[in-house]
Structure formats: structure tokens, C-alpha cells
User: Which sequence fits this backbone?
């Protein structure tokens, strides 16, 4: 009887213990990656003059977006940060001239900013997003903005965000990508934005100006 019980017990130990250790290893790797990223970010921040656009202390941007024939969009963003910590506030208004109606998006995020290498920055954004037009919804918002710096004055950006509003329409996509050119503290940016909410989509090219320090 003891031998019969011993084999299942031994099997459970051999199966569960490695899984527990694997989870602990993954958690340890993730923790060390975040801590290592923060340390590397501090090093880059201390030598920020070499990298120019990476890890901005303050950023302000305004864009115009052209969608369908009678639909236009305006977008503004303000970001404040120091080394690997930051936050941003963002507002977008889509308006249709015929018939006259609008749709607004507001979001605020906490940013964990990582200097992957001197030519790349990844932000982990967690915050709140609200949509209002004919109906209103608000939700948790998660994003992973990525910035690549192929040259001192140029930036390639990809800014995917995902929101979770309800069970019927679980995921909202807000995807932006584009190219920036900066001269000293000001610049111009152009790109494309795609927003998907429930059965509605807003997408089109956008162009704007920004100030960055």
C-alpha cells in the first residue's frame, strides 16, 4: 500500500517542483530585466546630450488627421518624465461635418521608460482611457510605444495601445506609427493612425508639430 502511494507522490513532486522553479526563474528574469533596464536608462539619461531625442523631459505635440471626406481629427499629447519614470495625457477629437457629430478620446498613462540601446526606447504605458460620443465607455489602457533613432534628428515611432471596455467588444485598438524630424527643440511628424472601437473604425494619415526637450 505504501509503495502504491509512493509512486503517485513521487510523480507529483517531480512534476510540480520543476514548474514552481520555472515560474520562479521567469519571475526572477523579468525582475532583473526591469531592474537592468532601469539601470541602463539611468546611464543613458546621465549622458542624454549624446542621444538628443531619447528620454525627453517634456514633450508636447499637436496633430491633424484626415479621415473620410467629411471626417477630420485633431490630437494633442503632453508627456513629462525624468529618467525611467514618466506620465502623459492625450486627447483626440473626431468630428464629422455632414451630419454634424463628434467622437472624443481621452487618456492618461503612467510610463515606465526603458532605453533598450542608445538608438531605441520602449515605454510601458498603463493608464485610463475614456471614449464618448453617442455612448460613453471607459477602461484600462495598456500600450507599448517604441521609438527608434536612426539618426540624431530622425525618429521612427510605433505606438500601439489596447483597451478593454466590455465583454461584447473586449478590445479597442489604437495604433499609431510615423516618422519625426527634429531641429533643436521643435520638429514635424507625419504618420498614420488606426482606431477600432466596437464596429467603428477611424483611420487616416496625420501630420503635426511637436516641441521636445
Assistant:
Amino acid at each position: 500500500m505504501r509503495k502504491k502511494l509512493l509512486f503517485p507522490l513521487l510523480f507529483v513532486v517531480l512534476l510540480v517542483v520543476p514548474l514552481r522553479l520555472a515560474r520562479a526563474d521567469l519571475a526572477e528574469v523579468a525582475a532583473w530585466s526591469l531592474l537592468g533596464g532601469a539601470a541602463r536608462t539611468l546611464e543613458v539619461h546621465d549622458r542624454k546630450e549624446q542621444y538628443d531625442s531619447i528620454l525627453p523631459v517634456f514633450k508636447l505635440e499637436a496633430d491633424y488627421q484626415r479621415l473620410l471626406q467629411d471626417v477630420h481629427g485633431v490630437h494633442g499629447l503632453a508627456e513629462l518624465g525624468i529618467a525611467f519614470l514618466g506620465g502623459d495625457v492625450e486627447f483626440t477629437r473626431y468630428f464629422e461635418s455632414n451630419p454634424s457629430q463628434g467622437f472624443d478620446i481621452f487618456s492618461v498613462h503612467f510610463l515606465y521608460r526603458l532605453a533598450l540601446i542608445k538608438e531605441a526606447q520602449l515605454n510601458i504605458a498603463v493608464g485610463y482611457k475614456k471614449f464618448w460620443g453617442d455612448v460613453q465607455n471607459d477602461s484600462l489602457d495598456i500600450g507599448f510605444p517604441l521609438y527608434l533613432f536612426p539618426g540624431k534628428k530622425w525618429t521612427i515611432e510605433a505606438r500601439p495601445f489596447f483597451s478593454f471596455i466590455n465583454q461584447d467588444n473586449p478590445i479597442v485598438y489604437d495604433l499609431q506609427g510615423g516618422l519625426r524630424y527634429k531641429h533643436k527643440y521643435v520638429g514635424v511628424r507625419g504618420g498614420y493612425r488606426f482606431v477600432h472601437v466596437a464596429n467603428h473604425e477611424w483611420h487616416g494619415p496625420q501630420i503635426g508639430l511637436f516641441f521636445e526637450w
Summary: The first strand starts at residue 58 and ends at 66. Residues 1-26 have pLDDT under 50 and may be disordered. The longest helix spans residues 2-46. The CA atoms of residues 72 and 152 lie 32 Å apart.
